[in-house]
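Quick illustration, no need to memorize.
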Amino acid sequence: MRTSMFCTYRPRTEATLQVPTRRTPPTGAIVAAAALAAMIVLPAILARREAAPDAAGTGAPRPEGTGSAAPAADRTASGALTGAPREHGHELPLSAPHWYVTMHGEEGALSQVFALDGTGAVLGPVLGTLPTAEAPLDELRGMVVFGDGQLAVISAKSASSRAILFGAPSASTGVRPFRSVLVRRSTSNPAFVHPYQLAVGPEGALYASNQDTNTITRYEGMGSWFRGSPMSVPSGLSGFGTLLPGTVVPNDQQSPEGLNQARGFAFGPDGLLYACDRGRGRIAAYDPRTGRLVRVVADAQAGIGHPIQLVFSRDGRHLLVTDNKHNGVWRIELSSGHVHSLVRPGSGGLDAPSAIAERGDFLYVGSRLGKQILKYDRHDGRFRGVFADLPSNPEFLVPVTQQ
């Protein structure tokens, strides 16, 4: 039996906190009340959990790993490494946060990043309150967990598009305090409209895909005095006229090589930027130094429909792509270009796949319309069960190791 929408970070032997489900009207009031209750009750219960020693009797947090024989860090749809390899077989307790998920946040739902434990149960919201001068969180999308434990998340609402930075989670509550707005839509940053995904490039810059301008833009990274400021347009794009500040991949109205409908992207082991173009039904590789198209990796001729997000396999040899027209997951061998249907259409009830992440021997895929995270064998794509039932449509999923 699955838990309610919110439960406390308790060991599995303790009772969990039960709250009304979102189906009880009025929806908005109940969800907001549930979030408030979770954020009030969590500190006291977490303090009790932290006081208890871990399996080794130290009480210290343990690094979370992949669960495979060959240690490797976790990968998300951004292509970024977000988790440390597991050491000496140590694992986080199942009741601790193992995943963060953003959800669509339809009318009346809470716009938040939610923590999931190792069984897929929804623990509760993790983002602290914003300053009163800031617009509320709205339409949360892509996330990045930085090496110092901070978290950046996209708040995609067109009128107030932002990439917002939150600090490391509180040791007692798991809640992350607001730090700053990293990137904001403005007159000096007009391409950053309805952003979808955020990622860190090989050189440390921040990259964002933007649904309303169908571009990928680049910003000064976390180590820069000017972090979040649009970077110069690559000189390789000079032949396409005046492009918006920060543009590294233009749209198809600005360049014949550009994107028609920008969605997810990831950086490959070769340093290239691999982008999902939902409108053209293709995955294309770009050189971020020049902004120019290097090659089309796969397109409609290979069966690609509406690619949404992608992630590189652990060995870097394959690209795994969610496709909400095909209604499955493709595996593309980069050396040959061979395209294989890894997760078959509709497998396990998959409906409009979105989020994708790899951990251990499993592939975790967001079933957007099904409001679930489904679990598949990463080798052969066989359905392994429902990992999480969610209160709203999943958008992005990342593994976490902070608690």
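The first helix runs from residue 27 to 51.
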